[in-house]
Amino acid sequence: MELDLGAVRAFVAVAEDRYFSEAAIRLEMSQQAISKRVAKLEADLGVRLLSRTRGGAEPTEHGEEFLKHARALISLADQAVERLHGRRRPLRVDVLGTRLATMEVIRAFHADHDDELELVTPGLGAVRRPMPPESVDAAFARVSTVTDPAIGRTPAYLEPAHLLVGRRHPLARRRRVEMAELDGLTAWMPYNARASEWAEFWQELCPAFGILVDTDGPNFGLEHHIEVLSGSKDRLGFVGAKMHVPWHPDVVRIPLVDPTPVYPFSLLWRHENRHPTLPLLIEHVRTGYRPFDADRQWLPVADRAAMGAQG
């Protein structure tokens, strides 16, 4: 039996992104085409690789086993094409999303080094990943520990959190808000209804400060989220200080203090990776990182040791 490499690539994209729609964006194909390729691969192999649910798609037991080999196949195929054409491929970096602080880190690196980059953006729906996909050279993620000796990790950035409220909210005229003032208030987070790196962080933070959480959706995206907050007197939201948020005349953004919650981004890579630009990126991230300040900032306990020092 001969495997269809395009079908294998489609399966890997869905398994990593957990959504057919996000895999379609990554591969620049229609969602229907992705579904057909995955269905053909499952038919050829005679096993079900993905379990499709309302919340997305999860690899089955067979899918998890096949995924390791599928990633290796894609990596070898890409390397073969690159060597055939005699060119060095761009450094592929998973930045989680183009609106996030990780883009600022990459922009600064590119400005200093002018190396060719290819950015991968699975978005905020990304599940927590203990290691970067084999399809990329490096990845930003929230990872408190790394137990696999094949994986390298360094703290990358601690992003302060900001409060989002409509102009009719009682806190709207404040220049900054202390975390204790949020006790008993409700944060509207429809995007926290499913597991993700971002959702897990806020699921730990909100109870620590007595913040109530409303995940009622559906989640129609950031623009809709901003629009709903603009007309609310009691709902509030959170964004990262460096996150690019659509401007709205009736929504204000306020820094949080005493302490300032910070979201922990780490950079992950595989030690076996020999891309010549990777060491430059690692050094850039390590040099620019400012360690966790326990007197002014807040992190979940599990993240504190990992983000407290470079290494």
UniProtKB/TrEMBL annotation:
Source domain of life: Bacteria
GO molecular function: DNA binding; DNA-binding transcription factor activity
Keywords, in A-Z order: DNA-binding, Transcription, Transcription regulation
This protein's GO CC annotations: protein-DNA complex
InterPro entries: LysR_HTH_N, LysR_subst-bd, WH-like_DNA-bd_sf, WH_DNA-bd_sf
Residue ranges of every copy of the HTH lysR-type domain listed in the record: 3-60
Membrane-spanning segments: none
Family membership: Belongs to the LysR transcriptional regulatory family.
Protein name: LysR family transcriptional regulator
Organism: Amycolatopsis coloradensis
